[in-house]
Write a structure and sequence with these properties.
Layout (H helix, E strand, L loop, with lengths): L2 H14 L3 E6 L8 H6 L2 E8 L8 H12 L7 E9 L1 H10 L1
Parallel strand pairs: 2-3
Antiparallel strand pairs: 1-2
Length: 97
């Protein structure tokens, strides 16, 4: 994991009391992408598992993630693909294999 990905994961763990977070730096897949180059931000993929998502729509859960990342979304992060799961949904997904 890159230093930036580590910082993103830590912020999500703390802000959302996440029980599981993975962040992958996919910036290398977007080499030369003008928007990322101009802003200096990277491309990331995240899985966030938090009880804070209970009862929320996917959009509302993603809004919590964006809020947790705050100013990182306007500088360090150019693009973020994410999956947001409740602990129950994550457990069911793991059990299903």
């Amino acid at each position: 994991m890159s230093d930036r990905a580590d910082r993103i994961a830590e912020r999500l763990r703390e802000a959302l009391e996440a029980v599981h977070v993975t962040v992958e730096d996919e910036s290398h897949l977007h080499a030369g992408h003008a928007g990322a180059k101009e802003r200096g931000g990277g491309h990331f993929r995240a899985l966030v598992v938090s009880a804070r998502f209970d009862g929320l729509s996917r959009v509302k859960a993603q809004q919590l993630v964006y809020a947790a990342l705050g100013e990182m979304m306007t500088g360090e992060i150019h693009a973020l693909a994410m999956r947001t799961l409740t602990p129950a949904a994550w457990k069911a997904e793991q059990a299903a294999g």
